[in-house]
Write a structure and sequence with these properties.
Layout (H helix, E strand, L loop, with lengths): L2 H8 L5 E3 L1 H8 L6 E6 L8 H15 L3 E6 L3 H4 L14 H8 L2 H5 L8 E5 L1 H4 L4 H8 L4 H4 L3 H8 L6 H17 L3 E5 L3 H13 L6 E5 L25 H9 L3 H12 L9 H16 L2 H16 L10 E2 L6 H13 L5 H9 L4 E2 L2 E2 L14 E3 L5 E4 L1
Parallel strand pairs: 2-3, 2-5, 3-4, 5-6, 7-11
Antiparallel strand pairs: 1-6, 8-9, 8-10, 10-11
Helix pairs in contact: 1-2, 11-12, 13-15, 13-16, 14-15, 15-16, 17-18
Length: 388
């Protein structure tokens, strides 16, 4: 591809590039660019939010460029404060390394492992003495740090900012120097951190990296960023049925957002919402499992919910105690699906007709149920349990 043609292809789906002209100049250098992406193993799972930047990194690979995947074994102990309204829990090195064990395997569901250079940033940060840390800190002012929207908001709300959090963008910026990045990918919340890297590279006499930002994917709740810690995520290593069920639970409004970000095409205005949601879930399962797994999961979902043959479907078993319907629904979510529902949430589901016992709606939130083994309690349009 010619540089202009490659640029036109790469910038599709981008939220911001600083700058397009710089990227085109780098694409014209006639050598593979070093394209950096840093991930912190703060949990054991990569999710669909991560997949957006990983797929863009794969696109760079397919154009002949070198992916540099930085596993933040050192920065992961601090936790990226970007977009956070509170300090992240402090992780030990043991916890971070345990989480990192599967990160590469998960990333290689998308990336070409043969064209990926994987490094751990602890390799250079653990060699720094305290004098070197002080000198690195002296390159950034406190005023610069407090210009960050997330820090500024926390100050306005009288929420604590701990000193170690200020280190994070400094460390991420130094990563770019150490791997001599030509381009750094990240979500839109990474703008400040990646710009710090540009400044450090300039001071070190290196060409400055291009800032390449991708949109942030909202979680299943439709409001907050997809996050394992918030429980609103779809993990790319989850089972096919779990991925399918989670995606079938999203709102129609969120589905219209997921289509361009996850499938790289717009949702047709003529598409029936339910069928469009099935298609979304099918394609995501196909991507991270297989076409056969996607077909099996779709058939199973249709058997459970579309065709109402719940009596024949494989369902989680729920050992029910004698209780009112609200208590039963809350307990079923918690024990069968590890989902926390308040009594108000359960009451709302009951009163709107989502809860069914053996195919009959239970709409009286004050009702006391008489249950027996083998009955099917449907909790919502994607979840049901079999009474034991």
């Amino acid at each position: 591809m010619q540089p202009a043609e490659a640029l036109a292809s790469l910038k599709q789906g981008a939220a911001q590039i600083i700058s397009e002209a710089e990227l085109q100049q780098k694409l014209a250098l006639g050598r593979p660019l070093r394209v950096k992406l840093g991930v912190d193993p703060s949990t054991t799972d990569l999710h669909l939010g991560h997949s957006i930047v990983l797929r863009k990194l794969r696109q760079f690979q397919d154009l002949g460029h070198q992916a540099v995947l930085i596993i933040g074994d050192f920065t992961g102990m601090i936790g990226d404060p970007s977009g956070r309204s509170a300090t992240r829990p402090h992780l030990t090195r043991e916890e971070v390394m345990h989480n990192a064990e599967t990160y590469r395997d998960q990333a290689f569901k998308i990336l070409d492992s043969a064209r990926t250079e994987t490094v751990f940033n602890g390799d250079w940060f653990r060699k720094m003495n305290y004098e070197e840390v002080i000198r690195l800190n002296s390159r950034v002012t406190l005023q610069q740090m407090l210009q960050r929207e997330d820090f500024h908001a926390r100050i306005d709300n009288q929420q604590a900012i701990h000193a170690h959090e200020i280190q994070y963008p400094i460390m991420q910026g130094w990563d770019s120097v150490m791997v001599r990045a030509d381009v750094e990918l990240g979500g839109t919340d990474q703008l400040f951190n990646i710009l710090v890297g540009r400044d450090f590279q300039k001071e070190e006499g290196q060409p400055q990296q291009v800032v390449f930002l991708l949109p942030i994917l909202e979680g299943l709740d439709g409001s907050k960023k997809m996050s394992k810690s918030l429980g609103n995520f779809v993990g790319i290593s989850e089972s096919a049925s779990e991925i399918f069920g989670k995606l079938m639970s999203i709102s129609d409004e969120l589905m219209a957002r997921y289509y361009p970000l996850l499938l790289e095409r717009s949702l047709s205005k003529e598409a029936h919402p339910l069928e469009a949601k099935k298609q979304l879930a099918f394609e995501i399962v196909q991507t991270y499992h297989s076409a056969d797994a996607a077909k099996r999961t779709l058939d199973e979902w249709n058997a459970r919910f579309s065709e109402k043959r719940l009596s024949d479907a494989e369902l989680p078993q729920f050992t029910a105690q004698a209780a009112d319907i609200v208590t039963t629904v809350v307990a079923a979510y918690a024990k069968a699906f590890e989902i926390t529902k308040s009594r108000a949430d359960a009451r709302r589901l009951i009163e709107q007709g989502s809860v069914q016992l053996d195919g009959k709606k239970v709409t009286d939130s004050k009702a006391a149920l008489s249950l027996r083994t083998g009955q099917v309690l449907r909790l919502d349009k994607t979840r049901a349990v079999r009474i034991k």
